[in-house]
Amino acid sequence: MATRPEGDLSPVLTAGGVRRSFGVSVVLDGIDLTIAPGEVVALLGGSGSGKSTLLRILAGLDPDASGNVRRPLHHAVVFQEHRLLPWKRVLDNVALGLSGPDVRTRARAALAEVGLPDRDTAWPAELSGGQAQRVAVARALVREPELLLLDEPFGALDALTRLRMQQLFIRLREQHGFAALLVTHDVDEALLLADRTLVLEGGRLVEDAPVPLAHPRTPDDPAFGALRRHLLERLGVAA
Amino acid sequence: MTAAPRTVAPAAVRAPSAEAVTPAPDRSARPRRGRRVLRLVSPIVLFAGWEAAARTGLLPPEKLPAPSEVLRTGWRLTAEGTLAVHLLDSLQRAALGLVIGGGLALLLGAVAGLLRVGDDLVDPPVQMARMLPHLGLVPLLIIWVGIGEELKITLVALGSFFPIYFNTYAGIRDIDERLVEAARACGLGQLARLRHVVLPGALPSLFLGLRLAIGAAWLSLVVGEQVNAQTGIGFLMMEAREFAQTDVVLLGLLVYALLGLLSDLLLRLAERRTLSWRRGLKAT
């Protein structure tokens, strides 16, 4: 039901019949999902709805889930917390797990892209929350992902930093053309960034709707407001 | 990057703290220096009193010789080369015991910390054995391994085993699971995760374990070398006791103390160099 093939392009991510239960409680009850190359999909849902669980499964980080997931070789994850290794300098954190002669050059380039070209030798503990999250984005970006999986990546940041990060995301996506699954509880963020929104409820995807807004988008656009009201209603919040 | 919302709060915070901070160094720096001098006073007085009491014959030399006498003896034994021989033997025992006990502890601690099966199989007996005071095992160890070198090395190994085992175990268990997951998401395999996440994450604990283990090793050595040793600092002291050379006994104590101090200092230096990322942690 969440399938939406775009042209003849084969999807960058295909998931079928994804199920996950913790003990007796079934968190995900048969999720089918495809994401087209370059498509940004926002996954909304109340807290505890299983959004993050689904993202971890799609990222291949949950061995106890059932169902089929086909993900591209080049994918990367950005978590809500930056999850940088405190004992590695920023540049080594970005280059973590990569090999090759030009790794450091690529890592430097990624740092420059997120606006931190001169923080390469800093320790993660010396960074502000926003800077650390930028490094986490650079760590994902340097892997040249076809698919970026983001788990409430800007949720822990203050409002202004979050706005800047959202703009950074739009810019990076224009430059790199990656597809993305963005888990968020922020309806505005979903409508600002995504081509399509999904709503997860009761372990199933209960809504799959495109976001037919032209870029650049602003929350004061009346069409934006209408979509916002609709999504909030879907999430059980009376607008 | 969050300059706008932040400028308000720090400005408000800075105002009162600025008053508090500037006079504080003036008030505390001098007393701190003064206190450091003050803290030297009582040891110096004690040593001077000791020296005076020994020289005037108030303290009989066979009970407590003067500190200068102890130092002179130390110089004499160093010049003769005797001290070096015994010191080397003691160091060798400590090192060997530490390598055996510490290596075993590292291995078992890692197995128990990393694998659930290892935890279930290894940890219970170690927890039980921990309750035995290892210096109390001397009679049993004499029956088992005799009174030779094996006894000293076994004692040191036993003494250093537990601190390293427990700190290895705790260090691995305390690693943030989310960092391991992030490393997995970055494509790190099991070995790479051990190298880049588990080992550096457990390293602060390992250092703590090693420091405690070295302390325990010296303690074990003190006891072990008093059982039928032919060489070593402990032997030097026991032999001196028989000939009532109290200055040599005191010298042995001094050497033990210096060894403990020196090893702790070296280890702390190594720790500071290896764990320099924690300095950044403290700075913020």
Automatic annotation (TrEMBL), chain A:
Domain of life the protein comes from: Bacteria
Alphabetized Pfam families for the sequence: ABC_tran (PF00005)
ABC transporter domain boundaries: 13-227
Protein's UniProt keywords contain Nucleotidyltransferase: no
SUPFAM superfamilies documented for this protein: P-loop containing nucleoside triphosphate hydrolases
Gene3D superfamilies (alphabetical): P-loop containing nucleotide triphosphate hydrolases (3.40.50.300)
Keywords, comma-separated and alphabetical: ATP-binding, Cell membrane, Membrane, Nucleotide-binding, Translocase, Transport
Endpoints of the signal sequence: none
Molecular function per GO: ATP binding; ATP hydrolysis activity
Protein name (database record): Aliphatic sulfonates import ATP-binding protein SsuB
Organism: Catellatospora methionotrophica
UniProtKB/TrEMBL annotation, chain B:
ABC transmembrane type-1 domain mapped to chain residues: 87-267
SUPFAM superfamilies: MetI-like
Biased composition (Low complexity): 1-26
A cellular component annotation (GO) from this entry: plasma membrane
Keyword check for Electron transport: no
Keywords: Cell membrane, Membrane, Transmembrane, Transmembrane helix, Transport
Listed PROSITE patterns: ABC_TM1 (PS50928)
Main subcellular location: membrane
Protein known as: ABC transporter permease
Taxonomy of the source species: Bacteria, Bacillati, Actinomycetota, Actinomycetes, Micromonosporales
Gene name of the encoded protein: ssuC_1
